[in-house]
Design goal:
The protein has 7 helices and 25 strands. It has 462 residues and is mainly β. Strands 4-5-7-9-10-11-12-15-16-19-20-21-22-23-24-25 form a 16-stranded antiparallel β-barrel. A hairpin with a 2-residue loop joins β11 and β12. The longest helix is centred in the first third of the chain and has 13 residues. The radius of gyration is 26 Å and the shape is globular.
């Protein structure tokens, strides 16, 4: 395998932790001061990681051999970087272990040097204010939420292909100064091979409709084949509270804040009727998706089959009755959801796309769709690689039928049972710090009444 020296700079920058300035003069005549890699090349040369060629040139577009790349890795290892820089170097060292061994960097020493666990996560504060016209009278209801999360997301290396991954959360309600202990939200094993991936365990479920059908977790397994054109097969179970037939499902209220009272007030105002969320679901699905490299058309399709007794029955004053909020007959215990999505990437920053989903087994609120346009490089939020100055803005329209958006992004802008306009913005004032704001204005799919939601979030990644 050959790598371009210029592309290798991205990973070689792990040595940047060894110095905080770029004061050294650039020794290469073919890397002008205005070049995007000028600072990186200068620092790498000053640190002795790269030497260039005898004629005083760098030849940044020339391919290098694995042996030459291993020399760069060995020199970087000698500087003993830490944190994210060390984690990146560990992955490089594993890739070039054979060449490093030939250079005298013994594999046994490499394994001792490498940190097998990457500790990462975030602290997140979220404010939400959801407002609606009451379903049964002329009043209005407003329910606010202040939620704080401390999240661990460790990644433990098993071998070259397999890692163990988890999400561990602790929540706090800042308005009431109450908190919860840490809970294991997700934990799964992941195998990554060329054009093939397998996951087993309790893992994230976020499919190619960009959140209008699923944004949750399930327990089971999935396999993905392909590169630009990918097919993913899912099978497993969803938790009892994740799925069920209903109408005006604005009652999917995140109950972390002020316990039962917030959800009760919200349910009374919105007129939500439907399932109890007491039965787990069996779940099988397939996604097919094409994604271009940087620019061009993209799209795909999905199919989801869910079996759950909550589609069939609900409780009224403790008595089980047929769930007529899902089907006219009240005897349907399955969901078959079909979806399509398509869009166009104008480059790295601009994207126009939409998605549509329909539950062929439901008779009420059985369709969901969205159309959105986004500009910027921080759509949806940040991560451990977010850099200072990144930003994005977006706007569009959403309709989320309660029986098609079974466990969708119901906490951010539009919520299940509503339709209307959404907009948002995100900005990183410094590395790994992100501010997000969203707004939804619309009304209910079934019955009258306006609904709106304000959403704000601050994320600190580590």
């Amino acid at each position: 395998m050959k790598k371009s020296v210029v592309s290798a700079l991205t990973t070689a920058l792990v040595v940047g932790a060894a110095s905080t300035t770029f004061a050294a003069a650039n020794p290469f005549s073919d890397v002008p001061a205005g070049h995007w890699a000028y600072d990186a090349v200068t620092q790498l040369a000053a640190d002795g990681i790269i030497e260039g060629y005898g004629d005083g040139t760098y030849l940044g577009n020339k391919n290098i051999t694995r042996y030459e790349m291993a020399q760069m890795v060995a020199k970087a290892m000698a500087k003993n970087p830490s944190g994210a820089d060390k984690a990146a170097l560990d992955r490089l060292a594993a890739e070039f272990s054979e060449e490093l061994n030939n250079l005298g960097v013994r594999v046994s020493q490499l394994e001792k040097y490498a940190d097998k666990v990457i500790w990462q996560g975030k602290i997140e504060y979220t404010y939400k204010s959801a407002r609606t016209d009451n379903a049964y009278d002329s009043g209005k209801t407003k329910v606010n939420q202040d939620d704080w999360i401390f999240r661990f997301e460790p990644i433990a290396e098993v071998n070259k292909h397999w890692t163990l991954r988890a999400r561990i959360d602790a929540h706090a309600d800042l308005s009431h100064d109450t908190g919860s202990s840490f809970s294991l939200e997700r934990g799964w094993a992941q195998g990554d091979y060329k054009n093939f991936q397998i996951k087993v365990g309790r893992q994230p479920l976020y499919t190619n409709e960009d959140g209008i059908v699923w944004d949750t977790e399930y327990t089971g397994g999935e396999v993905t084949f392909g590169n630009r054109l990918k097919a993913t097969i899912y099978a497993g179970r969803l938790g009892a509270s994740k799925v069920g037939g209903s109408v005006r499902n604005a009652g999917s209220w995140n109950g972390r804040q002020d316990g039962v009272s917030a959800e009760d007030r919200w349910n009374d105002a919105t007129g939500r009727i439907g399932h109890d969320g007491t039965d787990p679901s069996s779940f099988q699905a397939i996604n097919i998706q094409y994604t271009p490299a940087e620019k061009g058309l993209f799209g795909g399709a999905g199919y989801y089959h869910i079996k759950d007794d909550d589609f069939k029955t609900m409780s009224v004053d403790g008595v089980k009755i047929p769930n007529y909020a899902y089907s006219n007959q009240g005897d349907e215990g399955t969901a078959n959801i079909w979806s399509v999505n398509a869009g166009y990437k104008f480059g790295r920053k601009a994207k126009l796309w939409g998605a549509y989903a329909q539950n062929s087994r439901a008779d009420f609120e059985d369709k969901s769709y969205q159309a959105l346009f986004a500009y910027g490089d921080l759509y949806g939020g940040g991560n451990q690689n977010t850099k200072k100055g990144q930003w994005a803005v977006w706007a569009g329209y959403k309709k989320l039928g309660s029986n098609a958006s079974l466990c969708a992004i119901n906490w951010d802008d539009a919520f299940a049972g509503t339709k209307g306009f959404v907009c948002g913005a995100s900005y990183a004032p410094m590395d790994r710090l992100v501010f997000i704001a969203k707004y939804f204005k619309g009304d209910y799919i079934e019955g009258s009444g306006d609904a709106q939601r304000l959403f704000g979030r601050v994320e600190f990644f580590y």
